[in-house]
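quick one, 342 residues, struct below
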Amino acid sequence: MFYIRADGNEKIGMGHIMRCLTIAEKLREQGEEVLFLTADDRPVKPIEERGFTAKILFTYYDKMEVELPQLMPLFMGDGQAEKPKVLVDSYFVTEFYLKNLGLSAKVILMDDEKKAVYPCDGLVNYNIYGKTLGYERDYPARTKLFLGCEYAPLRGEFKKGGYEVREEAKDILLTTGGGDSCHMALSMTKRIVGKKDSPFVWHIVCGPCHPDTEELESLAVGNRALRIHKNVPDMSELMRRCDIAVSGAGSTLYELCSVGVPTVGFYFAENQRRNMEAFGKMTPVMNAGDFSAAPERVLDFVEREVEVLRRERGLRERISLAVRTIVDGKGAERLAGELLLI
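---
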């Protein structure tokens, strides 16, 4: 049994769950049984929809130490000859939590921020800046490190090629991730509604925790410039239909790069700031900035750069070719194989 400890809800979004599900699918393909452990029932539906079981701990996603009395006996009574493995994906871990978890399990940490040097047997930071944070310098040799975009856990659909940079840019994808705590999509949509003759069709993705889905659907009624997409079964196909993307700075950025969509990025959470700034400096993805701090400035930037991309097909071609070199779509498979060797 391979355990995955992760949560998802309206406040933290569903990014932790979604990337762990991608890893879980690759573990299952390699013959491993996977059990998800969640603080509450909010992420259970997407877990079960992908064919996995979740054990609910009935605790708090942001107070992880209180669940140790449940987890340690679970791992100790697992019945495996060796310690079971647990992948932990949360920004609320503590050194005490991980140290005690390590007494009964081999702990692999998904880490985006490097807030501290944590006790763990393995550590994953697949972000574009993952190799720049000094993990090799600061972590002991016993901790296996999986750093950089070659370990980005993208779903299998993102292995496909075939993106076409069309002569005329008409379709724009707008995605904020699993949620939208700052209502960016709604703010952008109200601007679109206020324009009489938009040259675009905006495809707005509402994730499972999006707070404004109903209002967005209402605004889209009768408006040829707006399409609302819920529960998208094949995100890569929707991306391929779009000429430009406007995206939050989570895992979706890596998916867009894999497909090759010219993208304007933004962020509204501090844990996405480093990712967006790194993309802005290291890739052709344009950084619109922090929507939570300066919403009007971000929206102005988005509209301006989208118009530049619409006019310049050559620029879109150059960006598309460049971003496709960042990830190869095989990160989840690569990572799953390595994790089983710990």
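The longest strand covers residues 201-206.
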